Amino acid sequence: MAEKKYQCIACGHEQEKYFVRMGYDYYKCSSCGLVSTYPFPGPAEIEAHYKRKFKEGNYQLIQKFMDSYLSVYYGFADLLNKRLQRQDRQIMNKKVLDIGCFTGDFLKILKDRGADVYGLELQAEAVEIANRSLDGRVYKADLLKKEFPQIEYDIVTMLGLIEHVVDPLELIDRAVALLSKGGIIMIQTPDSSSWPARVLKAHWPPYAPVEHIHLFSKESLTRLLRQRGFTTIEFHRHVKYLPVEYVFQNMKNFGPEFHRLLNGIYGFVPDFIKNLKLPFYIGEVVVLASREGQ
Ligand SMILES: [Zn+2]
To answer: Residue 167 above 90 pLDDT?
Structure first.
């Protein structure tokens, strides 16, 4: 039987079978490098997966290491600031929409710096936690259904979002439509063209079935942002300073084979090493883009 082929959602070229991981088929576009899982998980499977994850520790893990995780959000805020400063602009009074804002920790940082912040989040528990400090500015709403303020935003951010959805282009199009002229879009996502992805191939931790559906490359992101009129596109390697312990615990979800491999020796690792904050780069990228006419 001939191998099934799929059409790349980013460029329309054919995607070819790349590998099988945990029973899921991965296909890669030979033109733009987008890697996708097929068949797409259904809505019920996706919902059950996130409910289980939220209950089983996704949120607890972030809470336990919140101080460290905040440094990641400060990193995003600083990147945004630098970009604005280069255009002689500042974050003060800018309208920011963070799509998939989880418990709103990134938005809190921007709010403290004077931004006018809004967030969208689908997990009810996360929305409730976010709104304790964001005065009802976080909506339990789908970006595609217009149940939140339909105003022009100066900055739209999607951090760790586009890899999770079946149709990321629809999300990007909607986000772009909400952006003011000269507005900035900031996207953080795994980069399937990064060196860790190329070296680890099927074992690259972001190839996490159900959780991650589309893994973009720099080329695929560049193409789709250009097609939408973005002219100034910059990429940053996303390096996170995190404790060894957090990274080890997180491997249960991302990179279970490494977790199993290290589990035997991890008990012998002294606490001072477990608590050590090291720069981790697993091949994620932050993209900042804007259109002409700021
Ligand atoms: Zn493609």
So the answer is: yes
d(CA 38, CA 215): 12
Mean pLDDT rounded to a whole number for the chain: 91
By three-state DSSP, how is residue 57 classified? Answer: helix
Give 101 Cα–ligand 1 centroid separation in angstroms.
28
Q: Within 13 A of 72's CA, how many CA atoms are on the CB side? A: 26
pLDDT in tens, 246-288: 888 888 878 888 888 888 888 889 998 888 888 889 999 999 9
Ligand 1 center to 10 CA (angstroms): 5
Q: Give the helix/strand (H/E) hosting 67.
A: helix 66-86
**113-143 pLDDT, tens per residue?**
999 999 999 889 899 999 999 999 999 999 9
Distance CA 10, CA 220 (A): 6
Residue 294 has pLDDT above 50, yes or no: no
Taking the centre of ligand 1 as the mean of its atom positions, its distance from the CA of residue 217, in whole angstroms, is 9
- C-alpha 71 to ligand 1 mean position (Å): 34
Tens of pLDDT along 27-40?
Answer: 999 999 999 999 89
Name the phi and psi angles at 87, rounded to 5. Answer: -100, 15
CA-nearest of 129, 203, 191, 126 to 162 is 191
- The SS3 assignment for 72 reads helix
- Containing H/E element for 235? strand 230-237
- Residue 14 C-alpha to ligand 1 middle, in angstroms? 7
CA of 93 to the centre of ligand 1 (A): 38
Give me the sign of the Cα torsion angle 284, 261, 55, 111.
negative
Euclidean distance between CA atoms 105 and 75, whole angstroms: 12
**Angle 66-86/105-112 helices, nearest 10 degrees?**
50
